[in-house]
User: Which sequence fits this backbone?
């Protein structure tokens, strides 16, 4: 074993210093019946670094990396190019192997990047303040509804039919267990749902995704006004944060809380996690925010420094009265986000968004020419819905199957996101990012043309 | 306060040595060799610079619909070398396990093997989209399944829910499974018992789920007071949430009796597995009678703490709770292929549903399995044995000069209180700050709440005897210094860090949570 | 100051006609340390003796403030929003929390007077 620093000689000396004969004596409080005498049987023993690499590498090689074929998958996770500097920097040991900055004097690195991250998130969402990250977009969404319930002292949330089903389900779970009511209109591929008429004096919030899970973009200003007229809050969820490089930010449309999945910036697809939830709101709501917050202050010498602040909201102080039970956040993913965002800067972020949109427009135009494919969206950013003449799940599986001459990850069948929705069987979500070449697009077009013939 | 600051947050005149014991030679910049002042990224805006080289977008007709395109965002512009230097400089202002001993009790700051990082970055894992067809991700599903197998075998439990994102999320998962099981048998109950020494997440979780939290006192040995506990049990108790080994670093010696009493009244036993690292390979929690336990992969199985996350918190479950576990879950298909069940249907009809986006913290799963395979069943047992040995060695080396809170051997962490500092004028906090100057990260302070001025040391198995000796020698010298009447030194510490003690009161009274374009560093801070 | 009464939870109430002004004691503010935020009840809210009426937060702790008597909140100290430090600098004066219209003056009899509170606090050491 390459990890234990203690030698057998060390162990003997230490046991003598403690005054016991063996390590077993230190486990004397364990009930005898539960005491294991040796390594658990049936489990493999220690392996060398080379052996482990071989075993884990073999598992990796059974998968089809998205980047090895043309990939158009989205639905809340997007394949973007991550500059090499990002991964290099987050692996610096002082970032990677530190913990929550409980001792601010030796954590200014983490604290300063969290302060910068909070500022970046506030800027791109058009909000006043943001926290130091949540687990992911879906859990951030659920926490936002809890926060709205606290602020309005109401218990009814309206979840748009354009909200990502994972966000809806994660929120509904808390609704069931923590106790609030939900209004959940049907899935809304066309973006035509009327949420305004659902808002009443009992409504704590309306949660709407922009662009919607089907890719539709809408101006949320009238919805915000309708919410505020009834004393409800507007929560805007964003699953593709790159869209904020081009679209009016939710803050400018009247959002009270903005939650987003930050994976697209700086974080690999990673089969779904870990990702990073963004959470932004207005300054006046800050004491009801969940999660950690970093604030600016001065040190004993009067120099600017940063600390975790307003921690009385949190579980380790408030215990059963905390705003949330959250403890761990997504620190390192927030760092990756922040570094990537710093590399992009004002111009780069906008350019990235433009490239995504332009590629999606090109792809939509190409797909529209394929018989059996109908682009369902009137508006979109980098992802849109197509209606296929065959069940999308089968088409997607076949185009990715190993016996294809050229495998393509064509899109996400909508039925994979919803339980028991046969009427959505023809729908497929298709995303294009800056990583897709025109050749990729042509491969998809050709494959679909063949498949739907 | 010394010196006004310019926009970059640098003092405009040399910092003077103002405190006793602090011999600093003033520099022009305020920098001190490797400790270089670093402005906020927003204060380094260099319009025209850019850190990426994206191509010109093809010209297309916009399909953005009716929304207005956005105006200027206000992000700063920097080149790649500027960005790399910024974050590299920031990194040097952090202590990490890589830098020094980090005995933060209850947080398990053990070595993070770099092989774990290498494996997690294989394109076969890192570049997998979570919604790829299942035939294209069989290796990923197999990895989740293998890790699940290890977690079940190591805990002696029949089932595991893999998706929770962290320990607290795992608690939520376990407690929702318990509530589901109670509801399923039409037996809603209202009360959850939580020991006073519990992590704050326990009562927060129980309260979030609508339970009344009933606190159980500890006895003089730092364990659950069995009689007081039994007196609180009743038919309205849904569960007990108990950490074992507990937050005082002690094994709950009555745990089997507790489990039996809990089950006798039809309640469930939730075990907080934050301290599982003390007993892996030596005790299976399943043999103790628990019904659910989360496992912090970032503690026990060495996935990096990353400045506060991400973590992962799989939850092992008993047969009674397993049907209510969250989706998605990996199952073996009849054809030998693995498949993800993503909705509560079929065999999973009783599942309470989905807790987060996608399928769990895959990146953490790869790291944890890599760690587990490297150690094997024998190495895992050795690791927990060494962790307990190290903590007891530290206890032995310090118990004559500091005040251990409880008698007898500890498990993986040693708890002291502040009685040894009585009448010195030095508090636990002051003492911790002086440790920083000596190059060590402090222990956990003021937790658990059951002792006064708590100091909880968890050295982990990653520290050598040499380091433990150096640490113990340092602690002994500091105790002597504190007792010699040098309270002022401790109260002013730390002196040798990039920043000295920070004004947390000012930060909380007037929260400044973001940079503003017209915000001079000084004014904003006051 | 004979019209000031104290609770074992370290709240004080000063009676002026049918209005009671409520705050926390010098001892309580010392124990809390620097107060950073005070959450006050809404005007019009009915509070009950021993029930949670406000929350006072220091950097590391949050404590409930209980109503010493039943009553309806008629005024809250808005100055604490901008200057929570008043609770530390002048807990029994400018650092008051809220005022209630007293519902049942006889409840005051069960509370401690200044001398009794003083010896109660001394007994805590």
Assistant:
């Amino acid at each position: 074993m390459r990890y234990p620093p203690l030698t057998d000689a060390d162990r003997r000396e230490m046991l003598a210093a403690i005054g016991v004969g063996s390590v077993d004596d230190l486990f004397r409080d364990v009930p005898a019946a539960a005491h294991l005498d040796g390594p658990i049987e049936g489990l493999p023993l220690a392996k060398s670094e080379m052996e482990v690499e071989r075993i884990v590498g073999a598992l990796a090689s059974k998968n089809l990396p998205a980047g090895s074929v043309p990939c158009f998958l989205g639905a809340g996770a997007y394949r973007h190019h991550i500059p090499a500097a990002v991964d290099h920097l987050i692996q610096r040991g002082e970032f990677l192997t530190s913990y929550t900055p409980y001792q601010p004097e030796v954590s200014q690195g983490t604290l300063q990047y969290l302060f910068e991250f909070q500022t970046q998130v506030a800027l791109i969402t058009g909000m006043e303040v943001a926290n130091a990250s949540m687990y992911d977009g879906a859990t951030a969404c659920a926490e936002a509804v809890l926060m709205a319930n606290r602020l309005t002292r109401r218990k009814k949330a309206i979840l748009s039919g354009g909200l990502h089903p994972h966000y809806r389900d994660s929120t509904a779970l808390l609704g069931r267990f923590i106790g609030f009511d939900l209004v959940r209109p049907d899935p809304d591929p066309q973006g035509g749902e009327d949420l305004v008429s659902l808002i009443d004096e009992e409504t704590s919030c309306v949660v709407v995704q922009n662009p919607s899970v089907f890719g539709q973009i809408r101006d949320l200003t009238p919805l915000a006004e309708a919410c505020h007229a009834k004393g409800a809050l507007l929560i805007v969820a964003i699953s593709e944060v790159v869209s904020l490089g081009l679209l009016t930010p939710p803050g400018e449309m009247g959002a009270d809380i903005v939650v987003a999945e930050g994976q697209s910036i700086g974080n690999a697809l990673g089969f779904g996690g870990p990702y990073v939830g963004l959470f932004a709101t207005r300054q006046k709501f800050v004491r009801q925010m969940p999660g950690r917050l970093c604030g600016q202050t001065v040190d004993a010498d009067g120099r600017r420094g940063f600390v975790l602040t307003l921690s009385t909201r949190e579980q380790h102080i408030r215990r059963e009265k905390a705003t949330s039970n959250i403890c761990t956040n997504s620190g390192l993913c927030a760092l990756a986000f922040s570094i990537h965002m710093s590399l992009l800067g004002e111009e780069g972020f906008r350019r990235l968004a433009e490239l995504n949109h332009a590629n999606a427009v090109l792809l939509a135009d190409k797909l529209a020419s394929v018989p059996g494919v109908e682009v369902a969206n009137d508006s979109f950013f980098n992802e849109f819905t197509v209606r296929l003449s065959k069940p999308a799940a089968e088409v997607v599986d076949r185009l990715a199957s190993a016996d294809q001459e050229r495998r393509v990850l064509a899109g996400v069948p909508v039925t994979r996101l919803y339980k028991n929705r046969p009427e959505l069987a023809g729908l497929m979500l298709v995303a294009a990012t800056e990583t897709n070449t025109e050749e990729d697009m042509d491969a998809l077009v050709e494959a679909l043309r063949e498949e739907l013939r | 306060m010394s010196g006004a600051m310019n926009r970059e947050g640098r003092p405009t005149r040399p910092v003077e040595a103002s405190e006793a014991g602090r011999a600093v030679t003033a520099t022009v910049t305020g920098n001190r060799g490797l400790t270089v002042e670093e402005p906020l990224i927003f204060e380094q805006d260099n319009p025209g610079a850019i850190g990426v080289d994206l191509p010109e977008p093809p010209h297309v007709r916009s399909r953005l619909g009716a929304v207005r395109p956005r105006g200027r965002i206000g992000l700063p512009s920097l080149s790649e070398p500027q960005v790399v230097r910024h974050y590299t400089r920031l990194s040097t202002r952090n202590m990490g396990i890589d830098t020094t001993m980090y005995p933060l009790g209850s947080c398990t700051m053990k070595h993070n093997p770099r092989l774990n990082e290498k494996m997690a970055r294989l394109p076969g894992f890192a570049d997998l989209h979570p919604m790829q067809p299942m035939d294209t991700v069989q290796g990923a599903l197999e990895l989740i399944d293998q890790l699940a197998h290890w977690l079940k075998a190591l805990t002696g439990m029949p089932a595991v829910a893999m998706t929770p994102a962290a320990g607290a999320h795992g608690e939520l998962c376990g407690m929702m499974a318990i509530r589901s099981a109670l509801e399923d048998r039409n037996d809603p109950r209202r009360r959850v018992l939580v020991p006073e020494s519990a992590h704050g997440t326990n009562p927060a979780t129980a309260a979030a789920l609508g339970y009344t939290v009933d606190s159980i006192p500890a006895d003089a040995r730092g364990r659950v007071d069995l009689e007081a506990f039994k007196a609180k049990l009743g038919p309205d108790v849904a569960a007990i949430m108990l950490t074992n080994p507990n937050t005082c670093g002690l094994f709950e010696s009555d745990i089997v009796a507790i489990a039996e009493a809990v089950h006798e009244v039809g309640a469930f036993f939730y075990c907080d597995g934050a301290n599982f690292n003390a007993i892996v390979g030596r005790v299976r929690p399943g043999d103790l009678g628990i019904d659910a336990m989360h496992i912090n992969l970032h503690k026990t199985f060495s996935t990096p703490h990353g400045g506060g996350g991400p973590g992962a918190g799989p939850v092992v479950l008993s047969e009674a709770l397993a049907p209510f576990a969250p989706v998605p879950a990996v199952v073996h298909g009849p054809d030998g292929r693995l498949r993800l069940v993503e909705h509560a249907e079929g065999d999973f009809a009783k599942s309470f549903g989905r807790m987060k986006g996608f399928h769990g913290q895959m990146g953490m799963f790869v790291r944890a399995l890599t760690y587990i395979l490297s150690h094997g069943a024998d190495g895992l047992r050795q690791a927990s044995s060494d962790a307990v040995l190290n903590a007891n060695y530290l206890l032995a080396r310090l118990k004559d000069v500091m005040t251990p809170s409880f008698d007898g051997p500890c498990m993986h962490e040693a708890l002291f209180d502040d009685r040894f500092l009585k009448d010195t004028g030095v508090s636990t906090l002051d003492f911790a700050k002086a440790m920083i100057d000596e190059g060590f990260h402090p222990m956990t302070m003021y937790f658990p709440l059951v002792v006064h001025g708590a100091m909880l040391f968890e050295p982990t198995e990653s520290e050598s005897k040499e380091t433990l000796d150096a640490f113990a020698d340092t602690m002994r010298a500091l105790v002597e210094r504190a007792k010699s009447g040098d309270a002022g030194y401790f109260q002013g510490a730390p002196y040798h860090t990039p920043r000295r003690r920070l004004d947390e009161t000012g930060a909380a009274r007037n929260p400044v949570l973001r940079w503003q374009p017209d915000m001079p560093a000084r004014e904003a801070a006051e | 100051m004979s019209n000031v009464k104290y609770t074992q939870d370290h709240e004080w109430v000063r009676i002026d006609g049918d209005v009671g002004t409520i705050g926390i004691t010098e001892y309580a503010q010392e124990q809390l340390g620097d107060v950073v935020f005070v959450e006050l009840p809404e005007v019009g809210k009915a509070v009950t003796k021993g029930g949670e009426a406000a929350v006072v937060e220091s950097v590391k702790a949050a404590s409930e403030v209980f109503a010493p008597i039943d009553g309806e909140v008629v005024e809250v100290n808005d100055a604490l929003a901008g200057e929570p430090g008043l609770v530390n600098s002048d807990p029994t004066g400018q650092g008051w929390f809220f005022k209630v219209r007293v519902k049942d003056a006889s409840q005051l009899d069960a509370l401690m007077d200044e001398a009794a509170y003083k010896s109660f606090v001394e007994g805590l050491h």
Summary: Chain A has two domains: 66-80+345-451, 84-341. The radius of gyration of chain A is 25 Å. The domain at 84-341 of chain A is CATH 3.40.640.10 (Aspartate Aminotransferase; domain 2).
